[in-house]
Write a structure and sequence with these properties.
Chain lengths: ~250, ~250
């Protein structure tokens, strides 16, 4: 049985709380948020607090608060304890607690209102000490079969890669949507293709999955497409086409 | 009962044949391919030919062959018949038959080896004459509930939008994969995020779904990311970041 105190009242804290509560081998001892109202929905199931001086004793402290507040919060946590955060982009040594440090980073895009299935969410863990890594591995495995040991250095690279496959992909959807609006075509016609594109990559390497006029070097189609785009769309179309063609 | 002759032995012909064969209200009379071997797998279920002079009589002829061969094939089809093609990027008036013209464009990415569920595939139809549009609508509805009347002009725009959401999105996956390889992080860690990104857009407008450092104008993170990228990746990161920030 691993005991946990979770800090944060946002998207990640919300879903981690639910995952831990659903797991009988995790003893979720307490929830902290600076605004107790953000975690009040859990108060019948678990002890909550908005006072860092009243934190319970636990094996692991998980800080699921905004990136730029992790350092300052961590310096106020109990001494000689294993303290972790859930961020993809903050280094482990940004933690300012006096004791042991670790990372417990669930690699998925969370929002409070959207239910998640933790058994499909990769959890990236890291710790300074081997024993702590084992504790985090155990804890992570209790909520997900996909546990990866990733260093802070690797995690920062993973985060850039995630920006491409998530944020930038979404921007491709946005431009597709803009083009549809511009020409009065229903964007929904493209939704099955969007799903298929993501589904394909689950089994096929991105290189092999690549199709389209850029890949085929079909200059005639490329030119016809460019004529339909505005200046900004054109710039992006040309740069990505060039990048696809350079392999 | 609508009778159909289907031309082509590739990805689209393969899946359309299966869909029509599975539908009792479609009379798939014949399959044509210039290399009979490419459609030989269907010869026990349906009449096949490699000779355009031996085409059967049917209500609708569907040309599912390579874009640049559509014009020439269409000029060799029976007179006074409704002839259609399945391409997203070829105009209806590229059809060179003497009779009626139409479009029967299934908007999805097909490959022979990957099973498809036609009930989730949008079919974009067009015809010169109202009666023909009705025939194509009936035929399309027999294999999919998602039937859209889209003009050649709109279809050419839809095709550009599809390049963004499919080809360019796949290239974002490719760059993510490159970064992972470069820094020895398993790309598979990103697969659930990729699926979630596509799943989110099924319900949320791309504008609202946008997250990340570009959207937050988090210059510090953006700079850190740029330092990890090679020249080409950097160029794409900067351009898309700018585009996200300009809304
Ligand atoms: N959302 C995701 O998709 C995702 C995925 C993986 C990892 N992460 C990481 O998980 C962490 C939390 O993200 P989130 O999406 O849950 O954020 P969020 O929904 O914006 O919630 C942030 C939480 O941090 C609290 N907070 C901010 N500044 C604070 C301070 N100075 N002192 C105390 N509490 C403070 C906020 O309190 P108030 O409500 O009072 O402002 C809120 O409870 C971040 O490190 C993020 O990088 C997020
Ligand atoms: N694949 C997709 O994801 C997709 C999606 C929607 C629409 N489409 C459209 O559907 C059509 C077919 O695409 P596909 O993916 O099925 O192509 P494909 O797999 O490459 O097959 C092309 C077929 O056309 C035949 N062909 C090529 N040139 C010919 C000629 N001069 N005379 C007779 N037959 C010829 C080929 O015969 P050989 O085998 O002898 O070369 C082959 O049977 C295209 O218009 C395409 O734009 C494709």
């Amino acid at each position: 049985m691993i005991s946990v105190v979770l800090l944060g009242g946002g998207n990640v804290a919300h879903h981690l709380t639910q995952a831990f509560l659903a797991c009988k081998d995790v003893d979720l001892k307490q929830l902290y948020a600076r605004n107790a109202s953000s975690i009040a929905n859990f108060q019948n199931e678990i002890s909550i607090t908005d006072d860092l001086n009243l934190l319970a004793d636990a094996d692991v402290y998980i800080i699921a608060i905004s990136d730029d507040a992790i350092s300052s919060i961590s310096s106020q946590l109990p001494e000689n304890k294993l303290v972790t955060h859930t961020s993809g982009s903050v280094a482990m040594n940004s933690l300012n607690n006096t004791g042991r440090k670790g990372i417990f980073y669930p690699l998925q895009s969370f929002s409070k209102t959207k239910p998640v299935n933790f058994s499909e969410i990769p959890i990236c863990i890291e710790a300074e000490q081997d024993e702590d890594l084992k504790i985090l591995e155990q804890l992570a495995q209790l909520i997900s079969p996909k546990v990866y040991q990733i260093s802070s250095d690797q995690r920062s690279k993973l985060h850039v890669a995630a920006v491409f496959v998530n944020n930038f992909t979404n921007h491709m959807y946005k431009i597709g949507n803009d083009i549809c609006k511009q020409y009065d075509v229903p964007f929904e016609v493209l939704l099955p293709l969007i799903q298929e594109t993501a589904a394909k990559i689950q089994h096929v390497a991105p290189n092999e999955a690549q199709t389209g006029p850029a890949k085929r070097k079909d200059q005639e189609t490329i030119q016809r497409h460019l004529n339909l785009l505005n200046t900004k769309q054109k710039e992006i179309y040309q740069l990505i086409t060039k990048s696809i063609q350079n392999g």
